[in-house]
Automatic annotation (TrEMBL):
PROSITE patterns: HRDC. This is Superfamily II DNA helicase RecQ. Coiled coil: none annotated. Residues 1-80 form the HRDC domain. Gene3D superfamilies: HRDC domain (1.10.150.80). Keywords: ATP-binding, Helicase, Hydrolase, Nucleotide-binding. The lineage of its organism: Bacteria, Bacillati, Bacillota, Bacilli, Bacillales. One of its GO terms (molecular function) is helicase activity. SUPFAM superfamilies: HRDC-like.
């Protein structure tokens, strides 16, 4: 469940970026790339570019936004887990 919430957050970001840029969402990146980001949880641009399907242009254009969204989602999930444990 945790990964799907993060995936949904990244998918929504992709949709917003696609609308802003006037391109279909798949032109930003595909679902498999989003799944790889969720699984690998890159923490910076160097790690992000190591994700299969991510290139330099993606990192330059969208990297910060995806990393911020990923980090925020992971932090929220971690807080929820801590609340459930305590």
């Amino acid at each position: 469940m945790k990964k799907s919430k993060i995936f949904d957050t990244l998918k929504l970001l992709r949709k917003e970026l696609a609308l802003e840029n006037g391109v279909p969402a798949y032109m930003i990146c595909g679902d498999q790339v989003l799944r790889s980001i969720v699984t690998q949880k890159p923490e910076d641009a160097e790690q992000l570019i190591m994700v299969n399907g991510i290139g330099e242009k993606f990192v330059e254009k969208y990297g910060d936004e995806f990393l911020n969204a990923l980090n925020e989602s992971v932090e929220i999930d971690n807080e929820r887990q801590e609340e459930n444990v305590g």
